[in-house]
Design goal:
The complex is a heterodimer of chains A (about 290) and B (about 170). By secondary structure, chain A is an alpha+beta fold. Chain A has three domains: about 50 residues, Uridine Diphospho-n-acetylenolpyruvylglucosamine Reductase, domain 2 (2-Layer Sandwich); about 110 residues, Uridine Diphospho-n-acetylenolpyruvylglucosamine Reductase, domain 3 (2-Layer Sandwich), CATH 3.30.465; about 110 residues, CO dehydrogenase flavoprotein, C-terminal domain (Enolase-like, domain 1, 2-Layer Sandwich). Helix content of chain A is about 35%, strand content about 25%. Chain A has eleven helices and 14 strands. In chain A, strand 12 and strand 13 form a beta hairpin. In chain A, helix 10 packs antiparallel against helix 11. The model of chain A has no long low-confidence stretch (mean pLDDT about 95). Chain B folds into two domains: about 70 residues, Ubiquitin-like (UB roll) (Roll); about 90 residues, DNA polymerase, domain 1 (Orthogonal Bundle), CATH 1.10.150.120. Helix content of chain B is about 40%, strand content about 15%. Chain B has a five-stranded mixed β-sheet, with helices on one face. Chain B starts with a strand and ends with a helix. The chains are: A alpha+beta (about 290), B alpha+beta (about 170). At the A-B interface, helix 2 and helix 6 of A face strand 4 and helix 4 of B.
């Protein structure tokens, strides 16, 4: 049983922003897969007196595909990611990653925006969206602003949203010719979270790495782009020695903690292992299955 | 808080109109307001699947949803599953849904606490995929925890039900 809380159901983004401005302690309720748990377990400390439920605002669950970009509405569910035909065909890494998250019933509820705003260091979508060069759209009473996703995560549970602001979308450019993978270590595939995660996106041509994006999950206070690893790959390619060096660099920039799931030392070792595994698979031509 | 909102939805084929508090969960609404107690409250955190219901034919964990979020939608609980199969398949009205019958025959239930959610999740899976592989059945039920059976008999029960349902609907095997 949850203690009662006030439930606001704004009809527009502007109304949501006004409520969030007037009630700074209110929490946005998207899929609720995390917030409803916190509301049931007030002893965990996150106990908002009110929720702002944006699900009656039209359009926030849309997935828009244009020639140049794919824009995921903040309320697009993980199931929608799994089922979207263009995403399945062009970015199979996203359905692959979403299927790691929760269970079918949880994926029917959980939203892309909720996964980002929740800002869990161990979240699965952020590393993948980081290597896709994603940007987010944020609306407040003074209008909309765009922010690179790299600037969105500020700490465990902390994001860049200011007073009265709502995340409305995340967008990434539509590209071809990239090899993209997500590698995750966990105890159990379903209903579990990552011990460590690695997302990789490489633009390859004739055995050379022309562009590289690497991001780590669950080994720092935030999901982490790691430019030093990316620069190494541009220089040295995907030889065995280059892959070993990339793993060492990733281990050196990771800042893991010890918790109930794993020790910091183990996480550091495993982020290296995941980098080696993912790069070896890309070098071997393994694309992510749809 | 005493704020109440109008809720208008279909539950097990019947239109239901009620006023509910904004913080009422779908599970509380089903169990306490409608007295449909077949759906179980277990973990209350969405982790175990015992509270699984279908919303517009897809599985959801009712314990972590607000009743107001299913306004205008169609909810099916374990109590309405047999009738749903009758409506969808045109088969004569059965006492039990084929998945319930399969669990009964194959010993898919022991203590029974997970069973309603497990059966509803399996029925939802078979609506989306009438001919699942063993791996697809296990993936479809990955959010439903059973601490008794070890799952083998559950998977078998779903396979048996799926074959019988395909025989009725003519879905390809």
């Amino acid at each position: 049983m949850r203690p009662p809380f006030a439930h606001h159901r704004p009809a527009t983004v502007e109304e949501a922003c006004r409520i969030l401005t007037d009630e700074p302690r209110a929490a946005v309720l998207a899929g609720g897969t995390d917030l409803m748990v916190h509301l049931a377990q007030p002893w965990r400390g996150k106990r908002p007196p009110a929720v702002v439920n944006p699900k009656r605002i039209p359009g926030l669950a849309r997935i828009d595909v244009t020639e140049r970009a794919i824009r995921l509405g903040a309320l697009a569910t993980l199931t929608a990611l799994v089922e979207h035909p263009v995403i399945r065909a062009e970015y199979p890494v996203l359905p692959f990653t979403a299927r790691y998250m929760g269970s079918p019933a949880i994926r029917n509820l959980a939203t892309v925006g909720g996964n980002l705003c929740n800002a869990s260091p161990a979240a699965d979508l952020p590393p993948v969206l980081l290597v896709l060069d994603a940007e987010v759209g944020i609306v407040g009473l003074r209008g909309e602003r765009r922010l690179p996703l790299t600037d969105f995560f500020r700490g465990p549970g902390q994001n860049a949203l200011g007073l009265g602001e709502l995340l409305t979308w995340v967008e990434f450019p539509r590209r071809s010719g990239w090899a993209i993978r997500y590698e995750r270590l966990d105890v159990r595939r379903a209903m579990d979270i990552a011990i460590a995660g690695v997302a990789l996106a490489l633009r390859l041509d004739a055995g050379r790495v022309h562009e590289a994006r690497v991001a780590l999950g669950a080994v720092a206070p935030t999901p982490l782009r790691v430019p030093v690893v990316e620069a190494g790959l541009l220089e040295a390619g995907l030889s065995d020695a280059a892959i070993a060096r990339a793993a060492e660099l990733a281990m050196s920039v990771a800042r893991p903690i010890s918790d109930v799931r794993a020790s910091a030392e183990y996480r550091r070792d495993m982020v290296g292992a995941l980098i080696r595994r993912g790069l070896a698979r890309i070098a071997g031509g393994a694309m992510m299955a749809a | 808080m005493s704020d109440r909102y109008a809720l208008d939805l279909a539950v097990n084929g019947r239109r239901v109109r009620r006023e509910v508090p904004g913080s009422r969960t779908l599970l509380e609404f089903l169990r306490e307001d409608l007295r449909l107690t077949g759906t179980n409250l277990s973990c209350d955190t969405g982790d175990c699947g015992a509270c699984t219901v279908l919303v517009d034919g897809r599985p959801y964990t009712a314990c972590i949803m607000l009743a107001l979020d299913v306004d205008g939608q169609e909810v099916t609980t374990i109590e309405g599953l047999a009738a749903r199969w009758h409506v969808r398949s045109g088969a004569p009205p059965p006492e039990l849904h084929p998945v319930q019958q399969g669990f009964l025959e194959e010993g898919g239930a022991q203590c029974g606490f997970c069973t309603a959610g497990m059966i509803v999740a399996a029925a939802g899976l078979l609506e989306a995929n009438p001919n699942p592989t063993d791996a697809e059945i296990r993936a479809g039920l990955e959010g439903n925890l059973c601490r008794c059976t070890g799952y083998a008999k559950i998977v078998k029960a779903v396979e048996v039900a799926a074959a019988r349902m395909r025989a009725v609907t003519g879905a390809p095997t």
